[in-house]
Amino acid sequence: MNSIDHHLNLFPSLIQVGHAEQFTQSGKTLLFAQSPLNQSYAVFPSARKDVPSTKTSGVEEQPIFFASSETLPSSERRLFIGDTSIIFAALQNLTNTAQNRGQEWLHSQETHDVIRKLTLDYVNFTRECWIHTSSQGSSQFSGDHYRSLYTCLALFAVLYVPEYGYEDAPVGDDLMEWLNVHFIEPSTEEGDHLSGLDRPWEDETFWPYLVRVTLRGLSKAATFFLATLSTHPSGNLRRLAQRLSPLLQSQPHLQSFEAERDFAYASHRWKDKVKALRIELDSVSESDRHDGIENWWDRLSDIVGILEGRIEVIRRVCEDLGADWREISVSWGVFADARLRRQDLPEVVSQVLDDMPQDPTNLEDMVHAALFSGDPAKALSHAAQLDPWLAAHMADLMQALSLIEKDANEDSGLNIRDFYVLGYAQYLNADPALWRITVAYMFSCGETGVRSADEVLMRVPLKLRSVGSITHGQGEQNGADNLKSGDLAGVIKDINATCYEYQREEVRRTICRIAAQTFVQEKEYGLALSYSSSAEDWPGLGRVVDRVLEEYITAGPEQFTRYVAGIAPSLQALRMQSGAQGIFIHRLMFAVRYAEFHQRLGNQDLQDAAWDLVSMFQDGLTPKSWWAVLLCDSRQLLQHDATLLFPYASACVLLQHLEEVVARTDQGSGDEYLRVLISKLHSGGTAEALHALQGVRLALAKYFARCTMIGTGGKQVLERKFIAAV
Q1: Which of 232, 240, 255, 581 has the fewest CB atoms below 10 angstroms from its CB?
Q2: Cis preceding linkage at 246, omega within 30
Q3: DSSP bridge partners of 67
Q4: Which contiguous run of DSSP H or E holds residue 68?
């Protein structure tokens, strides 16, 4: 994955078009900080050091913009990421099971077979993605990119995840099959061209083609074109070609034998036949080795030399054909040393690379060389440059197979596997929509990964602000309706499920608190209360209630009553919740009761309104900061001419609270008792609030006078028992 320069645009714009000069003249500049985990940046305006600072009162808020130079995965890439994450999850389940059942089970045949199956699943998915992207006109990653992933994973499977019991078996045939599948030579077009000729040996590509198919072990193609030599004018060539064909067809292959001993014996006898053919070939006179077009003897000698396993011939032929170190190394294991084992391959490859090194500019070639050389750590290093996806999943498999160290690095606190998996997870984190997959990878990476996943979860876009304005699809609208009804739905529901799966209760509560704060800003107080309760954030719940009570001050009783109607249904459930803290529940009860009071007042149900007012004092629900407000509310009820709405004792309750407010204010506690009333009056201060309370005192004096005239409490005042309808 090659790095390129990026031009990052911020949205919304930090500086409007045409206002750059104005921004500079303001004495500010732009600063940025890069995340230590990925290619994301925090960009923010700041005062220039060469400009004298001007002191301002309070804290000045500065916007912070977040941007990333990572390219967001396209739809085809997302599909690939999602499909392969299922395989990753299956391997995590396997390794987690191994922790419970012991390391012996991890190295059992049952486990090895599962790991091999999952490895081949990765191989097949990369193959399908390669085919798909190759057929598309344009993709974020080219088909050749996925072909590189395919060849690397397939080679890894051949060298490091063979069938159980074949770890020490000869590897040549398996590598030759890998080479022929992924690096097709010679081409089909060359074969079609030669097969259409009457005298194909006269074509300059005939002998290179015949040597190449022999080198690749393609015996059918080789014997087909050897058969065309039956009409060649040289009798020696016709005879030798006829002898060579059955040798190519009868070359022993390990998979054809039940025991390696039988394979070794058959290979030895086959080599004896090749030696006999060499003797016969060497007996051809010099005069008959050239047919006027080509020195057929040299070409046939090269083919026999390959079958003999002569390294110098294989090297020279590969150089002449333009082949690379891979073809030499693989041919070595098929012809030079048919019993070459995986553990012996690095020594052979080292000799080959000394004469024909890998291409340092080709990351695919570098990964192959590291895998051939038995250096998994170096393979991961190159794979990370090719694609972080490849490094992460190969590292995951390598650790399960005990191919890399599991001990953590002292500086980073990460082992090799976790380092590459976290690197891939940070690449995924560039796309917020992939957060579920991102945290799944992070949670598999020890304590460092868990902390990273927690941060990702707490920063997932909740999309709560669009509750009432979603227009992009029926599914999203349904999710918005669920949110409106107070259900945990959509993104938050998924986050809750993820937190539950990974036992991140504290993170879940934090996210619910964030959601509650967002709903408070949107004045969706019922939802804010639900999420505060879900987070067991009782102080937060109290702040929600305080915001609702503030609506009475700012918007008036009618709007206040509507807001309380949204939170009232939560009261009964909260009162039954064992962990709920009483002080905050009492505050909610007050808000509900106070809204009921104003509803009755608005409906002219004055008798019940008066009784509600007094009972809020008697039940101890009213916060002291609201006493003065309720006392002012009582004034119009005290001045009601048609009837006396308060019993004498209730009027005394009002007077007692009035006296306490005034006395405490005189003692310096006015802010505790008058703060809300001062806010409600919108002007003045303590003096105006006390003046309003003087009006209440006067109304009470007149009320007591009326009570005295018609008898204590008045005959028309009926005592009632209160039944709280909460």
Answers
A1: 255
A2: no
A3: 41
A4: strand 65-68
Model confidence pLDDT, tens digit, residues 94-106: 998 887 887 777 7
Q: How far apart are CA 69 and CA 590, in angstroms?
A: 52
Give the model's pLDDT for residue 460. Answer: 86
Distance of alpha carbon 79 from the chain centroid: 13
Half-sphere exposure of 47 (CA within 13 A, CB side): 10
Q: Which residues pair with 30 in a beta bridge?
A: 45
The answer to whether 677 and 629 are in contact (CB under 8 A) is: yes
> Is pLDDT at 490 greater than 50 in this prediction?
yes
Question: Tokens 């690449």 label which residue?
Answer: 427
Least Cα distance to 120 among 163, 89, 168, 80 occurs for 163
Read off the DSSP letter of residue 344. Answer: G
Reduce the DSSP state of residue 184 to 3 states and report it. coil
Q: Classify 356 as helix, strand or coil.
A: coil
Of 269, 271, 207, 193, nearest to 237 (Cα)?
Answer: 207
Helix (H) / strand (E) containing 65: strand 65-68
Q: Of 302, 307, 223, 312, nearest to 271 (Cα)?
A: 307
Contact call for residues 634 and 706 (beta carbons, < 8 A): no
What are the structure tokens assigned to 529, written together?
């209360």
Asked whether the CA dihedral 134, 430, 396, 98 is positive or negative, the reply is negative
Q: What is the pLDDT of residues 216-272, one digit of tens each?
A: 999 999 999 999 999 999 999 999 999 999 999 999 998 898 888 999 999 999 999
Map residue 67 onto helix, strand or coil.
strand
Q: Report cis status (omega within 30 of 0) of the bond before 12.
A: yes
* Residue 9 dihedral angles phi and psi, to the nearest 5°: -110, 135
* pLDDT tens digits along 636-674: 999 988 889 999 999 999 999 999 999 999 998 888 899
Encode pLDDT of 293-303 as tens digits: 889 999 999 99
Q: What are phi and psi of 570, to 5 degrees?
A: -80, -15
Is residue 693 within 8 A of residue 699, CB to CB? The reply is no
Look up residue 238 and give its two tokens. Answer: 């016709």
Name the token pair of 342: 């995986």
| Residue length of the chain | 726
Q: What is the pTM of this model?
A: 0.79
Which pair of tokens denotes residue 91? 């391997």
Q: What torsion do the CA atoms of 493, 496, 497, 502 make, to the nearest 10 degrees?
A: 160
- What pLDDT score does 32 carry? 78
Neighbours of 470 (CB within 10 A): 18
Residues 24 and 48 sit within 8 Å (Cβ to Cβ)? no
3-state secondary structure string, 4-57?
CCCCCCCCCCCCCCCCHHHHHHCCEEEEEEECCCCCEEEEEEEECCCCCCCCCC
Across 409-426, b (16+ Cβ under 10 Å) vs e yields eeeeebbbbbbbbbbbbb
Cβ-based neighbours of 622, under 8 Å, separated by 6 or more: 590, 594, 616, 630
Q: How far apart are the first and last CA of the chain?
A: 63
What is the pLDDT at residue 54? 55
531-560 pLDDT tens trace? 888 888 888 888 888 899 999 888 888 999
Does residue 527 have a pLDDT over 90? no
487 and 480 in contact (C-beta within 8 Å)?
A: no
Q: With left for phi above 0 and alpha for psi between -120 and 50, is residue 620 left, alpha or beta? A: left
Which one has a higher pLDDT value, 303 or 479?
303
Place of tokens 């390669």: 130
Count CA atoms within 13 Å of residue 139 on its CB side: 20
